[in-house]
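Task: sequence design from structure.
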């Protein structure tokens, strides 16, 4: 497959079209998600640009199949990719029960009791700093 085919372009595409096609395909081929696909896409982009620039300077006659580094087309990774760790499970909080209890404590007017109750309800995502003093 030629670099132009990989980018979805005609062999006579100009530099602007090559850059646009690369940017469009880059949105779907992220280096973090598909490193080998990204390498193939980047190699095709570089080869197409080089071919286009060579044709513009007259160093090369336009041809439909410019050379491309074929080593990026063959997967070289023999070991599997590392598995991402499982995200921590957060406790389930019933919002209705939480709000009812918080409103009851707030209505009682005992600010220290409300602050103590809220401090005991940490979900793990909040920082460990104490709640600000209530007026």
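Answer:
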């Amino acid at each position: 497959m030629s670099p132009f085919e990989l980018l979805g372009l005609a062999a006579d595409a100009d530099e602007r079209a090559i850059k646009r096609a690369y940017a469009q395909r880059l949105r779907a081929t992220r280096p973090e998600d598909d490193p080998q696909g990204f390498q193939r896409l980047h190699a095709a982009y570089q080869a197409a640009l080089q071919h286009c620039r060579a044709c513009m300077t007259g160093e090369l006659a336009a041809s439909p199949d410019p050379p491309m580094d074929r080593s990026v087309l063959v997967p070289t990774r023999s070991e599997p990719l590392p598995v991402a760790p499982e995200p921590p499970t957060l406790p389930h909080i019933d919002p209705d029960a939480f709000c009812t209890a918080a409103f009851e404590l707030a209505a009682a007017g005992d600010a220290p009791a409300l602050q103590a109750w809220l401090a005991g309800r940490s979900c793990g995502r909040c920082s460990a700093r104490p709640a600000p003093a209530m007026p």
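Confidence is low (pLDDT under 50) at residues 125-129.
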